[in-house]
């Protein structure tokens, strides 16, 4: 079961099986070059275990779509070279980034988690928007 958490604007959170994943994206102006079609974002992730069992983050999967509909999929073991264990009440935070060739896009994904009984499950990463602050907005 998943549910959205109440968070500030620009922060995205979702809870799956007592694992809350919170993401805060940030446009990196100093690493972006719009004339060269290069737009870069950092995203800060917090993974919090609100359940009674210890869990381990085994792998990640990202689905990244730019504003033209081009999809990039990224998967692999752990995050930033780690496969952290989270006891009840513990959290793990990290920052990573992604470049796009368009001024906006969206990311979503999941973490594969394993609890202390060996049960494997996916903790959903909420979909979050990547929007260049200089992009002209069109209202629909």
Automatic annotation (TrEMBL):
Chain ranges of the ApaG domain: 13-137
InterPro entries, A to Z: ApaG_domain (IPR007474), ApaG_sf (IPR036767), Uncharacterised_ApaG (IPR023065)
GO biological process per UniProt: error-free translesion synthesis
Superkingdom field: Bacteria
NCBIfam families for the chain: PRK05461.1 (NF003967)
Protein name per the record: Protein ApaG
Organism: Magnetovibrio blakemorei
Gene: apaG
